[in-house]
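=== RUN LOG ===
request id: a7f3
mode: sequence -> structure
chains: 1
length: 101
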Amino acid sequence: MAPLVSTLLSDLGSVALGLAAYGAVFLWAGAALKRPLVAGLVFVFGWEQIALVLPGYLRYLTIAYYVQTATRDATSLILVTVMALFIAMQTIERREYVLEQ
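=== RESULT ===
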């Protein structure tokens, strides 16, 4: 029973890191783009799916690849999360938001 619990906790940690990474990337997209929903859908259902099945090094440019390997090495997901949050903070700081009336 103990190996199952450790596997479950490891997988839950991978899911949490993946959610943080995707959340940070989509936070940046929401702050930087005019239509972030369209870009997010193209990213998740277009780029991520195509890049994972193509041969070569393109799979290293997706978050899904690092979520799949997060049980062995989680530093890349943490790095993606921190970098995306930093870029989102810079975007929000430099952008001028105008309230529509």
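=== NOTES ===
The chain has one domain: 2-94.
The mean pLDDT is 90.
=== END ===
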